[in-house]
Amino acid sequence: MSSIGRGLVEALDEMVLNGTISPLLAAKVLKQFDKSIIEALRTKVHSKIRSKGHLDSKRYCDSVWTFDLKNASFKTDNSDMQAVDRVKIVACDAACAAIKSRQL
């Protein structure tokens, strides 16, 4: 989950706990956030990322891939190489994600 997503979840949780909004409204906000992020990434982001690292594990379940990398490095078209000790990448088929979001 991205830091902006975590921040949104924390803020919504706090508002639900304070009684400012209902849990149903919080769920609707998160659903719209997911749709908006997917659309923005699909239409607005055109950068490519190159990565290197040791593939520690990979899993495939319910059309979702999970990759755990160690000693990874990432480079975009216009940035310096960024190194990280560990990273988890979760990827799903966009068609499956669209079907699942409609079911919510």
List key phrases describing it.
TATA box binding Protein, subunit D, domain 2; 2 domains; alpha+beta
State the gist of this model.
By secondary structure, this protein is of the alpha+beta class. The chain has a 3-stranded antiparallel β-sheet with strand order 1-2-3.
In DSSP terms (H or I, runs of 4 or more residues), the helix count works out at 3
Radius of gyration: 17 Å
Number of domains: 2
Helix content: 40-55%
Order of helices and strands: HHEEEH
Strand order of the largest sheet: 1-2-3
- The counted number of beta strands is 3
The profile of the biggest β sheet is: 3 strands, antiparallel
Residue-averaged pLDDT: 87
Query: Residue ranges: pLDDT <50 for 5 or more in a row?
Result: none
So what's the CATH class of the largest domain?
Answer: Mainly Beta
Could you name the CATH homologous superfamily of the largest domain? Transcription factor IIA (TFIIA), beta-barrel domain
Q: If classified by CATH, what would the architecture of the largest domain be?
A: Roll
Please identify the structural class as seen in this structure. Answer: alpha+beta
Report the principal-axis shape: elongated
Q: Determine the CATH topology of the largest domain.
A: TATA box binding Protein, subunit D, domain 2
Measured distance between first and last alpha carbons: 19 Å
What proportion of the residues form beta strands (DSSP E)? 35-45%
